[in-house]
Amino acid sequence: MTQQAQVVQTTPMRELLPHFWELARPFWRSEEKWKAWGLLSVVIGLSLFLVWLNVQFNDVYKVMYDAMQAYDGKKFWESITRFSILAAINIVSFVHMVYFRQMLEIKWRRWLTQELTWRWLRGQNYYRMQLTDKSTDNPDQRIAEDCGQFVQLTLKLGLGLLTSVVTFCAFAPILWRLSGGANFGFLFGMNLHVPGYLLWIAIVYALFGSVLAAWVGHKLVGLNFLQQKREADFRYSLIRVRDNAESIALYGGEEYEKAPLRNRFGMVVDNFWTIMRFEKRVNAFSSFWAQLAIIFPLVISAPRFFAKQISLGDVMQISSAFGKVYDSLEFFIDSFKVLAVWKAVIDRLATFNRSLAAAEQLQVPQPEVIPHGLALTEMSVSQPDGYPLVRELSLQLQPGERLLVRGPSGTGKSTLLRALAGIWPYCSGMFGYSRTGGVLFLSQRPYLPLGSLRDALRYPQATLPVSDDELLEMLRAVGLSHLAHRLSDEENWSQILSGGEQQRVAVVRALLVKPALLVLDEATSAVDEPAERRMYQLLLEHMPQSIVISVGHRSTLAEHHNRFLDLQPRSA
């Protein structure tokens, strides 16, 4: 797909506000709403007060420059004193406006980040999204970065728009009054009298600039969206290398890894060059238009000044008022690049939000609760494309029975276990088991959370009432006595421990929890056969009444089980 094609695939502008409201509304109706509305009121109040101060400054400029023209030192120093007082008030007001705005920003960002994070984690949505929508890339970036940008840019643009509207309403009458009227002659002796002509000139000047700015930089929205995606893809590639450092080092795969990293970063650079070219045009136009706006009011008021119709103070007041009116109308020009980033952020968060909603709506069959044991009745499991893996399987297991699921790769052994766990939507039939005593699934690659070794052993039940002595005993039992002195060490244990050691940690979890149903999906494949035999012996000694279901390829697993299920490959 070409870059141009990717740029086009963004949310239409007509959908921007509905998507924005969909993201913003929940916070302003949440439990934080009263604090949020209070802070917003304070920020708006201070912003309006700053506009009023600007009007006072405009009056001071007239008195100050009129005093200079009349060589009136007394009035000049009086205006300087007034200016100093207003400046001090302005500084204090501005500092507190920014402070309260940042306070609102962090509260909003915290709430939005937590809300999206909890929704992402709730009901295995983080897993379901991989099944329903593979186009929603890099959820980590959307939660960690896009939430912050969304809040920051929303407040910046929203308050900026409000301030611009109020500034226009405050300074337009001043410019109208100072403009007087102007007569424009046409052919055949026709004259046109235009009252407040400077105001009309300022409006036309700013609107014409806004239209040109939109035309010059209209492609920045799609380019910024694409830049965020490519930055996230490159960062993910680097994280993959970090997380698989040992395997890459053993393979000597450094040269191979350079190619995809170089390609992905090359895509970042190429897109950034394109953004630079468009931003160069926007910046060149904005700078030219802004510089012209400085001299323009002086040029159009100079004839009246030299004709002695207005004073120097009037000229400076016209210049100030024209500048404020222009600045308020120039909001779109100055904010176009920010609007482009803001829309790209909303596109990404709205897409993520829709993917979450789709995952929440996905119907995933859940196991029924039965009095005891485990039962499957005509259970079928298939791939997402409908290809059948297991058809109409019926099975019953009683407490204490141990089932070994065997079969060639691709016959659906692991997928069957996902269905039993209630995370696989593509299954049918009845299946259930007793919840008394709990259920625990151990995978081939155990997950070890960041934190202490103690937390890793107790995961996912952080509050499991287990003493350190019990943990040490279990570590020694599974052959991890060399880690006994490191219970409190906080490390990235998935990087420090070998695959076999990680599987031993997972077995410790099972020995601590003692679930009524224990499912092992090749959970001992990384340890040698004597160690595997020892771990199964420990499980049977500590959990004699538990149902154990294992998936594996080793023939030695058979001696630890008394029931067997052989799955055969099916023809397409």
Automatic annotation (TrEMBL):
GO terms for cellular component: plasma membrane. Residues 42-340 form the ABC transmembrane type-1 domain. It is a multi-pass membrane protein. The chain crosses the membrane at residues 36-55, 80-100, 157-176, 196-216, 282-300. SMART domains: AAA (SM00382). It comes from the Bacteria. Residues 374-572 form the ABC transporter domain. This is ABC transporter ATP-binding protein/permease. It comes from Chitinilyticum piscinae.
